[in-house]
Amino acid sequence: MKNLILIRHAKSSWEAPLKDIDRPLSKRGIGDAHITSHAVDQFLPKSFIVWSSPAKRAKETAMIYAQNLAIPLETIIYKDDLYTFDERSLEKTIKDCENKYDNLILFGHNEAITNFVNKFGDHYIDNVPTSGFVALKFEEEEWKNIQKGKILKTIFPSHLKS
């Protein structure tokens, strides 16, 4: 059995004229990442590997989660292949995960995340928002063989704000 947690990076800032990969989190994004990271602890597996896109906004989101969930920063693996908006590319990267890891937490980007969830999940999600958390479970024993999985939990900032 394989477990995958997809986290879309938090809201980014458009204030400075930067390359897309260099855009940081906005003030709202920082707040939302803190809110969602505090709500997911009970849904995390005991052991896991963490991958992130190298984009600044994804890295900053991963760092906020790491700080709030006591994940050592040095264990986060930044993968260039995760700087993608295409679900086929995301799927290929996930399916290349080593089978010794049963639990993968991944920080990435939309449209790739929403489209991946809708292809591999058991129900439709219109849009995984920024700071959105989606936990999926697959019955397959090897990442390369994952098929339709079950969405175990979604946590979006709008669910947590009163």
Question: Features of this protein?
Answer:
single chain, 162 residues, 6-stranded mixed sheet, 5 helices, 6 strands
Briefly say what this structure is.
This protein is of the alpha/beta class and 162 residues long. The chain has five helices and six strands, in the order βαβαβαβαββα.
Give the proportion of residues in helices: 25-40%
Number of helices: 5
Q: Taking Cα atoms only, what radius of gyration do you get, to the nearest Å?
A: 15 Å
Outline type: globular
Strand order, largest beta sheet: 3-2-4-1-5-6
In the CATH hierarchy, the third-tier topology is known as: Rossmann fold
What is the average per-residue confidence, as pLDDT, rounded to a whole number? 96
CATH architecture: 3-Layer(aba) Sandwich
Terminal CA distance reads 36 Å
Q: Which blocks of ≥5 consecutive residues have pLDDT under 50?
A: none
Which class of secondary structure composition applies to the elements? alpha/beta
Strand content: 15-25%
The main sheet comes to: 6 strands, mixed
CATH class identity: Alpha Beta
Order of helices and strands: EHEHEHEHEEH
Number of strands: 6
The CATH superfamily appears as Phosphoglycerate mutase-like
Taken together, the total number of domains comes to 1
Overview of the molecule:
This protein has 162 residues and is of the alpha/beta class. It has one domain: Phosphoglycerate mutase-like (Rossmann fold). The protein is globular and about 45 Å long.
Write the layout of secondary structure elements.
Blueprint: E1 2-8, H1 27-39, E2 49-52, H2 56-69, E3 76-78, H3 87-95, E4 103-108, H4 112-120, E5 133-138, E6 150-155, H5 157-160
Parallel strand pairs: 1-4, 2-3, 2-4
Antiparallel strand pairs: 1-5, 5-6
Helix pairs in contact: 1-2, 3-4
